[in-house]
Design brief:
Blueprint (H helix, E strand, L loop, with lengths): L2 H26 L5 H12 L5 E2 H7 L7 H10 L3 E5 L7 E5 L1 H19 L7 H14 L9
Antiparallel strand pairs: 1-3, 2-3
Helix pairs in contact: 1-5, 2-5
C-alpha cells in the first residue's frame, strides 16, 4: 500500500470513528448506546415485520457480537419484544414496540441535529462525489450504498 492509500484509508477510519463517537456521546444523554439506536432503527425500518437476531446483526452498521445482549436490554426497557417464530420454534423474532418507536423518535432528533452540523461544509456536488467515491471503494464488499 502506498502512502497516499494509507493516508486516505486512515482518514476514512478516523472520520468514521469521530462520527460514531460523537453520536454515542449524544445518545448517552438519553440513556441509549449507538448499537441500541442501530437495532431500533433496523426494527423500525422492518415496518412491523419480525426480524431474527441474525437478520438484525447482518444489517447493523457496526457488526456486534453482543446483539443478543443489546436486545435483552431493549426488551427489559419494553422497547422491543421477543416472539417465538411460528415456522421455527427454536428461533426468536424481534419486533419494536410503540414505546420503542416513541423512544426512537427522540433519539432520531438528536442524531439529525448532529448531522445538520455538517450542512454547508461541502456543496451538493461534493457530497455526491463523496458518496460515489465511497461506493467505488467498497463495491466488492457490499451492494448497499454508503
Amino acid at each position: 500500500m502506498n502512502e497516499l492509500h494509507y493516508r486516505a484509508l486512515h482518514g476514512l477510519i478516523r472520520a468514521g470513528h469521530r462520527v460514531t463517537d460523537e453520536v454515542s456521546i449524544r445518545l448517552k444523554v438519553l440513556g441509549a448506546t449507538e448499537p441500541q439506536y442501530n437495532v431500533l432503527r433496523i426494527l423500525n425500518g422492518a415496518k412491523g415485520k419480525p426480524l431474527s437476531v441474525q437478520e438484525i446483526s447482518e444489517r447493523m452498521v457496526q457488526r456486534s457480537s453482543n446483539v443478543t445482549r443489546i436486545i435483552d436490554k431493549l426488551v427489559a426497557q419494553n422497547r422491543v419484544v421477543r416472539q417465538e417464530c411460528p415456522e421455527n420454534r427454536r428461533k426468536m423474532d424481534i419486533v419494536i414496540t410503540k414505546v420503542g418507536q416513541a423512544y426512537l423518535k427522540k433519539l432520531d432528533k438528536v442524531v439529525v441535529a448532529y448531522h445538520q452540523e455538517f450542512d454547508g461544509r461541502l456543496d451538493t456536488a461534493e457530497y455526491e462525489q463523496l458518496v460515489t467515491l465511497l461506493n467505488k471503494l467498497f463495491t466488492d464488499e457490499s451492494t448497499e450504498d454508503c
